[in-house]
Amino acid sequence: MSQILIIEDDATFAQIIEGFLSKNNYVVEIAADLNQAFKLVEKQEYKLLLIDYRLPDGTGLDLLKYVRNKGQQVPIIIMTSFNDVRTAVKSIQLGAFDYITKPINPDELLMVIKGLLEKKEPQKTENKDLIKGKSDVSDRLYAHIDLVAQTDMSVIIQGESGTGKEFAARTLHNESKRKNKPFVAIDCGALSKDLAASELFGHVKGAFTGAVNDKKGQFEMANGGTLFLDEIGNLSYEVQIKLLRALQERVIQPLGSNKLINVDVRIIVATNDELNNTMKTGEFREDLYHRLNEFKIIIPPLRERGKDLELFIQHFINIANKELNRNVSEIAADAKALLLKYDWPGNLRELRNVIKRMVLLSPDGVATIQSLPEEMTIAVEQVQLPNSSDLKAINEVNEKNLIIETLNKVKHNKSKAAKILNIDRKTLYSKMEKYSID
Ligand SMILES: Nc1ncnc2c1ncn2[C@@H]1O[C@H](COP(=O)(O)OP(=O)(O)OP(=O)(O)O)[C@@H](O)[C@H]1O
């Protein structure tokens, strides 16, 4: 039986990965588009899906949603070009386990795959891996966490993807009087609409087709402890009603059962968005929001955490050195400058991944700019828009960015790029020279 399914329309690239992974003892199958992939995942369960983001008949996110709606928890890695990193971040919110940016470094790919297949809980966060940061925003954040941890209040943790919401929830639990009881984390983004109620509240045999045995819900599993509901905004309206009842009456009713079970669970939820917006459209119940919002903690994005960034860089280098048996003790000045300038849309998760890759690619102990994704430089250049009303300068920056983006898209095939840009090759060459693009 195949272990890994690669969904990639670039046949040569797919075969290269297949060859590489087969050499490393993985059994691999390839699908060239979504249509083929849908059929394959219908037929069998894979251990891991490696999905290209841009596919001829849709995007990798379509397959991600399809698989998660079927209730399959299979680890999924999305492969994106760097320009799609922001979309990749969204894929994590939708239940992907990780993303990896093209051009793909085989060792990095292997590291990510091993991490997902060989560890039971790949994202398990341990207390020793946590650092608090030294910026003013961090001080405020942890003062709030310390304060509310001692209480039984429900908490909403709000922050962009990868800012450390689950870490914060675990810290709250570990500092509370419930610390010796279970901490149960559920990603509501990865739960199908049909399975969410049964996952949370359990079911009895025969409650619905496929309910072949009684099943305890996560509420019961967390009894006495803390239940962390990530991406709470994804819960359906019906499940929101059940959740509100559980919170107000401290009882749950498994699907298909008429027995009420008493539960004592502290609820912490996390969301990427301001839930207020979904409340206005009626998707999120106002009464539930107010019940949950006894205390709100907002985690700032990494780009607003000032001097914490350097601290986190060093912290992730230490972790990666240990994990990969490396000894990176120095970062070249240009690489350091790039790390500090980049805006980290994927926040701490993205930083951790980039640093791990950097450490992996620096066997001699000094991290150079070559060990950072080339596209980070492009992203940094793209945001350096001239801060003036100089129309010519602005147009030139836009032109340069468009050329770089297009060249990346067509893997530096100049004829293709010129065609897309609707200019001849000669003009493209002269513009590349003018903007020092190589
Ligand atoms: N305080 C911290 N100290 C060290 N590492 C951290 C800290 N907070 C987060 N991280 C790292 O960042 C990664 C992302 O954190 P976490 O999963 O908590 O983010 P999140 O906001 O819950 O993400 P998502 O929105 O995608 O659910 C973690 O795996 C961990 O490696």
From TrEMBL:
List GO molecular-function terms, semicolon-separated.
Answer: ATP binding; sequence-specific DNA binding
Q: Which domain of life is it from?
A: Bacteria
Looking at the keywords, is Lipid biosynthesis present?
A: no
Domain Sigma-54 factor interaction stretches: 131-360
**CDD domains in the record:** AAA, REC
Q: In this chain, where does the modification 4-aspartylphosphate occur?
A: D52
Alphabetized UniProt keyword annotations: ATP-binding, DNA-binding, Nucleotide-binding, Phosphoprotein, Transcription, Transcription regulation
Pfam families noted in UniProt: AAA_lid_14, HTH_8, Response_reg, Sigma54_activat
Question: Can the keyword rRNA-binding be found in this entry's annotation?
Answer: no
A single GO BP term for this record reads: phosphorelay signal transduction system
- Matches recorded under SMART domains: AAA, REC
Q: Which residues form the Response regulatory domain?
A: 3-117
What protein is this chain from?
Sigma-54-dependent Fis family transcriptional regulator
Organism, by scientific name, is Pedobacter cryotolerans
